[in-house]
Every structure is written in structure tokens, then in C-alpha cells.
Amino acid sequence: MVVGSTDEISVTPKTDYDRASELKAFDDTKAGVKGLVDAGVTMIPRIFYQPPDEFEKASALDNTKFSIPVIDLEGLFKDTAIRHGIIDRVREASATCGFFQVINHGIPVSVLEDVKNGIHRFYELDTEVKKEFYTRDPMKAVVYNSNFDLYSAPATNWRDTFICYMAPNPPSQEDLPVGCRDILLEYSKLVMKLGILLFELLSEALGLNPDHLKEMGCAEGLIALGHFYPACPEPELTLGTSKHSDNDFLTLLLQDHIGGLQVLYKNKWIDVPPVPGALVVNIGDVLQLISNDRFVSVEHRVLANRVGPRVSMASFFCTGVLPNSKLYGPIKELLSEDNPPKYRETSMADYVTYFNAKGLDGTSALPHFMI
């Protein structure tokens, strides 16, 4: 699924466009993008227009089809040779494209389906009910809004999101979003277990003790983001999510059957097609930082689509803006005279605060932390 090329886009400049006022008017509805769709819009507001250069087509590389690796975790604990093979594939994917999918990961398909259904249930609630959760205060137990960077990003994305801090201090059940409270708690426990396993594999892929990344605190925080991408009447003018890399250690993404996720690999946009029962795994900025570029946090985006709504659940291993003085820098065991540290130490809160203030502006936050 690919949006049109740049020569198919024609945006007529308007001299009376007051972006700040239109952003505030949209935010004040507290109804998000879904509110626009429910109102029957046939043309998207100008705040959603993306720069035309964001619409390069996904394409084959050297006439061969590159695809994001799908790694089968079956037999991980039963056979040493299988485990070593899995670690080799994790290492290769993490060092090259920064993305892979996992199957036979231990989370039942029924749970994955319940998560997607729970996201749908929340967003289908009456607007007045959802408004109770609508906030731009990142310290709330549950944050629901449209575009965390609404007032700083150059273009608004065709997407609504709720965010819940599930670890280290999960909210009480009654504070979680209506319609998906039980499944959020169950799913987050299973994701935490899988995440710890993946950090073991990633540690071994770096030549470290299996517990190294866990002991550094990479699995201390878990943030659940329930994304809702309504059907878009003009998908050629906007994006579901602008180009960005993730401000965490690791992301586990559950996407539905609609698709639209793309990864920027060797300056080409590559589709990440939904695989039934799979979870998408991608390296975050802070894991690239502590691995001193051994692993790469790769930019990705989500296309807008006439078909929808698309839903996804992104699980970020990160403590976000929660107060935490722990500093992260390149792992000393990975450094040498020939491989000196490329980044300065930073706390997770400082990294995320800088990232959030910058917004999804099409640039990476990592260079800001380089030595």
C-alpha cells in the first residue's frame, strides 16, 4: 500500500491560514481525528497536510524484494543450536534494519485479538466519555489525545492515541481506559515477560552476559500506546504517523490486518506487512546509544489509508518522563581504543523530554546526545 508520488499532490497556498488558531480549535474539541470522521469530513483540515517530500514510494532494492526478517522463537529453550541461530538473526536484524518480527513468542493469539478489540471499544465510546481522559499532562496515569506534539510538529498526524504507564508503577484498574482495562493489564504482563527474553537475546547478540541489559534497567519501564487511525478521505495529503525513530530501548508493536507501517532502509521505504500472530520488534534510540551504534534505531512511519480504522498497540520499554536519575551511556564492555564512546550519558527522562519538545519533525534526537 503506497501513497501517491509527489507529482500527484497539489496543495494551493492560502494566505488566510492561521495554523495556531486551527490547532487550538481542533484540540479544544477533545474529539480527536475520530471526531472529524464522525462529523463526516470529506476534505482534511490543512493542519494535517504533510510536506510533499514525505511521500516517496516504497520500492524494491536493486530489483530484489527486501523484507523485514520474521524470526521464529520456537525451540529457543530446547536446543542450543536453535538458540544460537535465533541470536544470530536478532544480531543481524538489529545491526542492519533495526526491525524484525517474532512468531511463537508465547503470547496467545486470543490475547492479541482481545487487545485490538479493546482499543476499538475505547475509541467507539461516546465522545463525552472519552473526554474525561483527554489531557496534555504527561504525568497523568492515562493520557488520551490526538498528537502528543500537536503544537510543535510541522504537520499533524491522522491519528489518536491513549498512553498508559504500565511499569514500574501500573495505574489502578479503574484508572485505565474504559473498554480495555482487563486486557491491558494481562497483555502488559505478557509483554514484559517477552521483553525480558528479548533483552537476553540482545545482550547475547552484543557478546554480553544474558542479564546485562536487564540489569542496566532496560526493562524497568513499560508504556502502552493504543493508536487509532481512522479512515482518511485524502490519504495522499497526510500521514498516520510522520517519519521518526522511537525514544526508548525497545518497542514491541501489535498491528492489525490493515497495514501501513513502513521502515526507512537504505533510503527506501519498505513495507512491514502484518503477519498473523506476530509482533513487530524495533530497536529504540536509547539502545542504539548504549550499544554505541552496534544496533540501530531506524526511522519509520505509518501511512494514512482510505480503509480503516486501523489500530495498533505499541509497547515502549522506557520510563518516559517519570523521575529517574539513572544515567545511560555507551556500555563500557563494548568500547575500545578503536571504538570510543560516540554519545554522552543521559537520563531517560532527559532524552524523552528533549524528544517530546522537538516532536515528530522528521529528524532524529540522537545527534543531540553525540559527543
Automatic annotation (TrEMBL):
Pfam families: 2OG-FeII_Oxy, DIOX_N. Residues 218-320 form the Fe2OG dioxygenase domain. Its cofactor is Fe cation. Keywords: Iron, Metal-binding, Oxidoreductase. One of its GO terms (molecular function) is dioxygenase activity. PROSITE patterns: FE2OG_OXY. The keyword Metal-binding applies. Belongs to the iron/ascorbate-dependent oxidoreductase family. This is 1-aminocyclopropane-1-carboxylate oxidase-like 1-like. It comes from Quillaja saponaria (Soap bark tree).
